[in-house]
Design brief:
Blueprint: E1 15-30, E2 35-36, E3 40-41, E4 45-63, E5 70-76, E6 79-80, H1 82-94, E7 105-113, H2 124-143, H3 150-163, E8 175-178, E9 192-194, E10 207-212, H4 223-229, H5 236-256, H6 259-278, H7 289-305, E11 310-313, E12 319-324, H8 328-339, E13 348-352, E14 358-359
Parallel strand pairs: 5-7
Antiparallel strand pairs: 1-4, 1-14, 2-3, 4-7, 4-8, 5-6, 8-9, 10-12, 10-13, 11-12
Helix pairs in contact: 2-3, 5-6
The structure holds (3R)-3-hydroxy-3-methyl-5-(phosphonooxy)pentanoic acid.
Length: 360
């Protein structure tokens, strides 16, 4: 695909206005871990977006031919945030070849996250997808093109990826795949695609995610450092094969409504991700003792009740307890009675599969 279909002379005029998007975080079932230059993933990953964990971003823009690019302000939840502002500035500088108006734009960005304060949840997927959508909307306004079609979302996914790899999966509802896979012919390393409804049994549209906040402190090793350690990793090639194999099995589980197989693959992916961290050089551990205690309780509960629920982990100690709508009450009781004590100040978030980004 060419995500940059635009008239190279279209941005010499003046324009100003405001574009706003709300975009969600997503949780991976098959994990993206390791990347090549240009944020090209080492393996395909599959995820779904969350409903409650979202960021709302507005960009006020002023474009004039005589201007050069400037980020005139950045606020997160009503406060200046220098660290995030620098990351966003370097992202905006890096994507100027994809939006020619950017070279002549002054942008003021305000953002608000609904994530509870210090929830320890990665916000970059939500933030970069919302930013990319705002930029694509500014461009669409300039060109008089549609913001509802496939091309628009594809470009937003492509651009989000350049900010944070997993962000490219936040553009769609349902099950979302990023990375080339022989099983999905429209898949790409450059942007994510939504799996067609025929590929996903209706039960999987009722997924929920009880997020157990085991720890909300800063991680000792960031995701970027973790991705980089995959280059020299002794299990790198095996991991790539494993991810393709797990994706194949997960696609089978999704289309056949096989919840047991689904749970097996999801947990295998979570534990494989963390075993890759432990066996990196240097090795490191992001799980906390309470992560293990909670996993133990979840597995024992599954055996004793036969309820199809499973855990997954991102690059951190917090547990995503994945379950189905019909088991919501049982999971609530499990969290209240047996898991809450493992959470930092008893914090957990009752989230579910969301509908994807919204313009406002
Ligand atoms: O998008 P990044 O660079 O923050 O990497 C995210 C990696 C994991 O969350 C661990 C897995 C994933 O696929 O989301």
């Amino acid at each position: 695909m060419n995500p940059d279909k635009q008239d190279k002379n279209a941005y010499t005029g003046k324009a100003s206005g405001r574009q706003c998007w709300e975009s969600p975080s997503n949780i991976a079932l098959v994990k993206y871990w390791g990347k090549y230059p240009g944020q090209i993933p080492m393996n395909p990953s599959l995820s779904f977006v969350l409903k409650e964990s979202v960021i709302r971003i507005c960009i006020d823009y002023d474009i004039k031919p005589e201007y050069s690019f400037k980020l005139t302000g950045f606020e997160l939840n009503g406060q200046q945030n220098e660290g995030f502002a620098r990351r966003i500035e370097s992202f905006l500088t890096g994507i100027q070849t994809h939006f020619l108006f950017l070279k002549h734009a002054r942008l003021k960005i305000t953002s608000e996250s609904t994530f509870p304060h210090s929830a320890g949840i990665a916000s970059s997927a939500a933030a970069f997808s919302a930013l990319a959508l705002c930029l694509c909307s500014i461009e669409a306004k300039q060109l008089g093109t549609n913001t509802k079609n496939r091309e628009f979302l594809q470009k937003a996914s492509f651009v989000s990826r350049l900010g944070s790899g997993s962000a490219c999966r936040s553009l769609y509802d349902g099950m979302v795949l990023w990375g080339e896979s022989e099983f999905i012919h429209e898949s790409s390393d450059e942007y994510a695609v939504r799996l067609d409804n025929e590929r996903v049994h209706s039960d999987f549209y009722t997924l929920r995610d009880a997020i157990l906040i085991i720890d909300d402190g800063t991680k000792p090793v960031s995701s970027s450092e973790g991705h980089a350690l995959m280059h020299q990793h002794p299990f790198r090639e095996v991991r790539k094969q494993q991810a393709h194999g797990n994706l194949k099995k997960l696609l089978l589980a999704l289309s056949g409504g096989n919840k047991k197989l689904f749970c097996e693959i999801v947990e295998n992916e979570a534990l494989s991700l963390h075993s890759l961290m432990m066996s990196s050089n240097p090795g490191y551990l992001l799980m906390k003792p309470n992560t293990i205690h909670a996993i133990d309780v979840i597995r024992r509960f599954r055996v004793s009740t036969n309820i199809p629920l499973c855990f997954t982990l991102d690059a951190g100690p917090n547990i995503h307890l994945i379950h189905f709508e019909e088991d919501r009450q049982a999971v609530r009781e499990l969290v209240q009675n047996e898991l809450k004590d493992f959470c930092k100040e008893g914090k957990w978030i009752d989230d579910s599969m969301g509908n994807g980004p919204k313009q406002f």
